[in-house]
Amino acid sequence: MAEIARRSGVGSATLYRNFATRRDLLEALLVDEVELVCTAASTIDADTTGARLTAWLHRFFQYVTNKRPVAVELLQHTDRDSPVFGASRDRVLAAGEPLLRAARDAQDVRADVSLDQILDMIVAIAKIPGRPDYRQPILDTALAGLRHV
């Protein structure tokens, strides 16, 4: 916590006033980032519904890769069944469903996979070891497979 306070430019007392434990801080970081991903679902602009969905899925991928260390650290202080993980997943699904539904209605994406499955695929790709430029073509190929045939 002292290192976090130092990097943030605040005193330890300020940090502890706002976050009693490391777990509280990690949960707040995760929740804040989830909020940004959910907001992006309604603000992403693209020419087609399929392109909007794909752009948002790229944003989700960015979230997963950037916040993975936070989630891993949080798992050291809680377990996967923690409400913060379930609630976050539910919020992301609720934000993304309208994008998927619109893309399906426009026949921009296939109808045989759920958003849950798509997000699981993206998380799996994000876990692949290596540099981001190694994972990016894998993600692009997987998302191309969502297009309606």
UniProtKB/TrEMBL annotation:
This is TetR/AcrR family transcriptional regulator. It holds the Pfam family TetR_N. It comes from Amycolatopsis ultiminotia. Coiled coil: none annotated. The keyword Transcription regulation applies. SUPFAM superfamilies: Homeodomain-like (SSF46689), Tetracyclin repressor-like, C-terminal domain (SSF48498). Residues 1-37 form the HTH tetR-type domain. InterPro entries: Homeodomain-like_sf (IPR009057), HTH-type_TetR-like_transc_reg (IPR050109), HTH_TetR (IPR001647), Tet_transcr_reg_TetR-rel_C_sf (IPR036271), TetR_SbtR-like_C (IPR049445). Keywords: DNA-binding, Transcription, Transcription regulation.
